[in-house]
Design a protein that fits this description.
- By secondary structure, the chain is mainly α.
- The protein has one domain.
- The chain has 12 helices and no strands.
- The radius of gyration is 20 Å and the shape is globular.
- It starts with 6 loop residues before the first helix and ends with a helix.
């Protein structure tokens, strides 16, 4: 019988799997590319913020603020770029959770979704997920949060469906995620709270150590998905 792992067990197993073979170092190498992109974006944002501040006329503050450029489209592009690289590594982290003895190829992991099999599916999941979550937040904060957690496993769901040879669409991946997360949204929230120390460390180090921290977080979240997925599959068999 499949039983749910506790948060402590998920985190313990994530550390054990990272220590197996050379998994942590290989995942750190894989995380270098998205980390560099994030650092470059942060530096550009700082330069842009400095340029904006230098344009503000503090004697006419309201008009100056109204005339500032809007960066909504830029933020979306940055989110998409980050997602494309992050999901390739997340898929590799899921495979590492399932089979920690399997060798990790860092550069293959980084560019994993940049092919016809995965690119358009990941792009569509990102687009639909963003739209639904934004609509949820526009309506009320609570529906937005619920949608965010309910759709959080969409990329994993897409990966598993297509890996098994199923014809999975972005919408079906979102639906599968919602089903997987039924009754487990609070569990994911509490898991994230238990990882708050790592998030604070990332902020305090200005994200300069993210390439070393992210492998552990990626394994933990992959473990959460695998844990919930296996448990629900076993429950369906028993019904």
């Amino acid at each position: 019988m499949t039983t749910l792992l506790t948060r402590r067990e998920i985190k313990r197993q994530a550390k054990e799997k990272l220590r197996t073979n050379d998994n942590w170092r290989q995942l750190m190498i894989a995380n270098v590319v998205p980390w560099l992109i994030a650092v470059i974006m942060m530096i550009l944002a700082l330069f842009e913020a400095h340029a904006i501040l230098s344009q503000i006329d503090y004697n006419n503050l309201v008009d100056s603020l109204n005339n500032l450029p809007q960066n909504g489209s830029q933020s979306l592009i940055e989110s998409l770029v980050a997602t494309m690289f992050a999901q390739g590594i997340a898929f590799t982290a899921l495979e590492t959770w399932r089979n920690p003895d399997q060798a990790i190829k860092p550069w293959a992991a980084v560019f994993r979704v940049f092919n016809g099999r995965w690119f358009w599916g990941v792009l569509a999941v990102w687009f639909l997920g963003t739209v639904f979550q934004e609509l949820g937040f526009i309506l009320f904060i609570i529906p937005g949060i619920l949608l965010s957690y309910g759709l959080s496993q969409s990329y994993y769901a897409l990966y598993d469906a297509r890996k098994d040879g199923q014809s999975s669409t972005a919408f079906s991946a979102l639906v599968a995620s919602w089903r997987v997360m039924r009754g487990f949204k609070l569990d994911l929230f509490v898991l994230q709270l238990s990882l708050l120390g790592w998030t604070i460390l990332q902020i305090l180090t200005l994200h300069l150590l993210d390439f070393a921290i992210n492998p552990y977080l990626q394994l933990v979240y992959a473990g959460f998905y695998e844990n919930v997925r296996n448990y629900q599959a076993q429950q369906q068999v028993q019904q």
